[in-house]
């Protein structure tokens, strides 16, 4: 079972973008069965993957009476969409909904090669539920001052969840996203990120490129976008996702087995 959560406690870092790119890449390039659970009420990932909608909402996996079983025999994507109803979960009792979600995800994962979970941009019950149910977590990082400041808090959350609730949770890594190679400030931020968290940083970057939001808006995989700039963007994304998958498939940073910050 491989359940990969894309998360960060700061918004605007590209969690949904990376969730969509990873899901499409696994399904199309590797011919794997991929399920996407969108736990974000903004539902950006759901909009980009609407053509793969299962007709079921992500909120259902927090409901004890709902069934998680689903037939998925073909190498394709299946979306469990995010909706505004997810916001109500933040008022629920944790002891009631967290075990339900974990149990439902474990059952659902039997129908897929990968589950990809997109989370809201704040620490709450939905983010906690995703981390408790996951096998791996990856954190896109935008190289701005406030994003870097939040890395330590995010790592504390991840390692705290692993220590208390999910001993099998593994940090796949931090991935620099929306990188501007011409920005002196971002270059300095990347240097600081590697200096402080070298054991967790994936040695790749996803640059700010117009082709990525265009592909998301069009609802097509990046590598299918009919423009020359999409080829360069797709090549860069493929390198980053290859390295991410190497860690998910068993190559973990040496210090990641410790309790972290």
Walk me through the structure.
By secondary structure, this protein is of the alpha/beta class. It has a single domain (3-251), classed as 3-Layer(aba) Sandwich (Rossmann fold). Helix content is 41%, strand content 18%. It has 9 helices and 8 strands. It has helices at 15-29, 44-48, 94-109, 125-133, 145-149, 151-164, 184-197, 211-218, 228-248, and strands at residues 3-6, 34-38, 53-57, 77-81, 114-118, 136-142, 170-179, 201-207. An 8-stranded parallel beta sheet has the order 3-4-2-5-1-6-7-8, with helices on both faces. Strand 7, helix 7 and strand 8 form a beta-alpha-beta unit. The longest helix is centred in the C-terminal third of the chain and has 21 residues, at 228-248. The protein is globular and about 50 Å long. The protein starts with a strand and ends in a 13-residue tail after the last helix. Residues 251-261 have low confidence and may be disordered.
Binned, the helix content reads: 40-55%
Please state the oligomeric state of the protein chains shown: single chain
Cα-atom radius of gyration: 17 Å
The shape, in one word, is globular
CATH topology: Rossmann fold
- Reported CATH architecture: 3-Layer(aba) Sandwich
Largest sheet: 8 strands, parallel
Strand content: 15-25%
Counting DSSP H or I runs of 4 or more residues, the number of helices is: 9
- Contiguous runs where pLDDT drops below 50 for at least 5 residues: 251-261
CATH class equals Alpha Beta
* Sequence of strands across the biggest β-sheet: 3-4-2-5-1-6-7-8
Domain tally: 1
Mean pLDDT: 88
- CATH homology-level superfamily: P-loop containing nucleotide triphosphate hydrolases
Question: What class would the helix/strand composition place it in?
Answer: alpha/beta
Distance between the termini: 27 Å
